[in-house]
Amino acid sequence: MNHKLYPVKDIERIVGAKGNIADVEAEIRTLCYDSRKLTDIKFALFFAIKGRRDGHSFIPEVYEAGVRNFIISDFNFDSKKFPEANFLTVSDTLKALQALAAYHRSCFTYPVIAITGSNGKTIVKEWLYQLLAPEYNIIRSPKSYNSQIGVPLSVWEMNEDHQLAIFETGISKAGEMKALAAIINPTIGILTNIGDAHNEGFSSVEEKIKEKLSLFQNTSLFIYSPFYLKNYKGEIPGKKTFTWCQHFKADLEVIDDEILEGKYEFLRGKFQNGEIQSLIPFTDAASVENGICCWATLLALGYSPEEADKRLEKLQPVRMRLELKNGINNCSIIDDSYSLDISSLAIALDFLNQQNQHIRRSLILSDIPEAGPDTDLLYSQVANLLQSKEVDQLIGVGSEISKHADKFTLEKAFFPDTDTLLKNLEKLKFFNETILLKGARTFQFERISKALTQKVHETVLEINLNALEHNLNYYKALLNPGVKIMVMVKAFSYGSGSYEIANLLQFNKVDYLAVAYADEGVALRKAGITLPIVVMNPDFLAFDTIIEHNLEPEIYSKRIFYDFVEALNVKNKEGYPVHIKLDTGMHRLGFMPDEIELLLSLLADTPAIKVQSVFSHLVGSEDKEEDEFTRHQLKIFEELTDQIEKAIGYSFIRHIANTSAISRWPKAQFGMVRLGIGLYGVDGTYKDSSPLQTVATLKTSISQIKELKPGDTVGYNRKGILPDGGKIATVKIGYADGYSRKFGNGRGKMLVNGVKVSTIGNICMDMCMLDITGLNVAEGEEVIVFNEQIRVEDLAQLLETIPYEILTGVSQRVKRIYYYE
Ligand SMILES: *Cc1c(COP(=O)(O)O)cnc(C)c1O
Fold first, then answer.
1. Residues lining ligand 1, CB < 6 A?
2. Among 448, 486, 792, 793, which is 20 to 30 Å from 562 by CA?
3. What residues contact residue 294 under an 8 Å CB cut-off, 6+ apart?
4. Is 18 exposed, middle or buried (0-12, 13-18, 19+ CB in 10 A)?
5. For residue range 179-235, what is the model confidence (pLDDT) as tens digits?
């Protein structure tokens, strides 16, 4: 916890910057690049990185927050507005970040392990952390921080209390590894495996392997499987190597594997002319391979086969998930199961900070299992962190954290262990707040989670927030410079959630949100959403509500115009933002082209309103057959908006593009686009291979399993028949959950244990039956209704409908869980 302080002058020299220094006394200990995630303000150095957005544009906000040290790349930057700040100017801020991390790395002489490969990097890193923790105080990359920014930030956390570092790296195109290798400068290298992933960024597999191996150029020990390099003709790095392989000659040759008791993989191998064995508490192929890689590493590091076996047997599953769910007493529960250390606590607190739905934020935190001796410093740092992240209440669990109670200046309570906390849960009176649970594994915080979460029906819709952000960024990257983005969160965000999704969109700085009805907008305002919100279907009766909550109505007809202006006049409002809808061919809502004169006369001389935007909607942007009509709509839209602009004498945002138009019609972007279903991973533009990620997984579970005799029938009206008998599973989802009755009698398929099985008989209201004949499954097991394998698009096709209807049809009684991984 003892991070070195760097005088600003040293930083200037290390990164080769031109300094404009107001305070030479400044010292640096924390690096940041995201204006939304600032900590340790006094000792922070902000890197203005040019990514999708230019980090320079956030400098005022970051300065306002108190940061006084900046690395920038704009030599003409006007620093006068920031008189107290130090500006270090370099030609490339990302390279400066990397150079600083490389320098920091060079200050330490303890061993540094670097891991790369196509799969398994994070698991192998986390497992080695578990396996080597008894001897070493280890610093490792948090979660899967393995990118061009993630690696330097991870390396920056090294300090002199550590005894071993483990970093993972991920690259997606040629040339990236060189920078990472220079930062990490590993002494030990591990290649997990080489698959086909990320081949797009490389000219050949050979090139990809060569690039990955360049990480290990200077290692004294390189651990790998020759199986993955069998066609590679280049040089193998490493002064020494240690190889492992299944059924091939290697330093560790795995000669036999067998599953024991359905939950252990029993491995036998040849090592140094003898036979050795190991038991790994996992049986799936990927875990077994990762386990063997760790086994090889232990042997290569000199652990005896017996010791290695003893440790491998105790491997724990790696939990990466951070879940957001509804809790008791109108609380939101954030359950972070990733192992506890200060950097993962900071990440989780950032997520807590993103939640606006409740004003009050509490943290339940256990002892931090850190081997370092200086717990004083550690808990002071935690206290600082809690202050900068504006946590209202701390509940500490464990004897260590309790000892440091004095350091925390917020509202607080301490318990010696999880049991005592659970006994006192009622007294804590959690109500209408967001609660983050962050506990070390031994504290079993899953028990607290269970006690705080509403118990409901076990069918859940899981929303992958990483995937959602990926999709958002994918569409943002398609936008021309300056084009704004409105995200459609109508109909409960296409079935996926309300403020949970809006919080994330607000955090990611989209420009607008849109809802169908005023009520939806009010719910978002009550949950702390401050983004502008458009109401597409404003109702006469809701006008007061709209004005009261600062919502912006769509004005689509003369009648709605007059009514709204009247409501504004009653309240003496002027310049109220509205959005004018034109009908260019949809023939739903909107002013028709022949009403344009009327519209212009309405807009003239109405100080009550201000036209914020004028928009229209495409009827078939995803449909090739309708391209001619789309062009026609675009042309009319352009003409009409030109006319309006001329007449009213000020400019407004123009927008017409929905999801498929963003991907298919770059010309349709105008000043803003309206992203809808694409955010959730569905876009008709991409038929076979989609760059989008699946966001929603609908899951249920098996209530009962039955063996049936030949001729037995299943369900209402005896529609399901098993002529030869068989086995059925009753699962907890029916048409009242949104699983259409049309999926009955074999039409619908679900995944049980990875196998696609068919429905049998009619779908009931709350349940349905699956034919699981021949499958070895147990009651209580999970069943997937849709995910990336059973795609919403395919289900829609089966029902002759569109994915929108499937997504929005998942009923409100199905619990939503949001997660990051
Ligand atoms: C729903 C909606 C959208 C979004 O459409 P997607 O096809 O889901 O992207 C855009 N504009 C309007 C007016 C809408 O109602």
1. 488, 536, 617, 658-659, 674-678
2. 486
3. 124, 127, 128, 131, 312, 315
4. exposed
5. 999 999 999 999 999 876 657 788 888 889 999 999 999 999 999 999 999 889 999
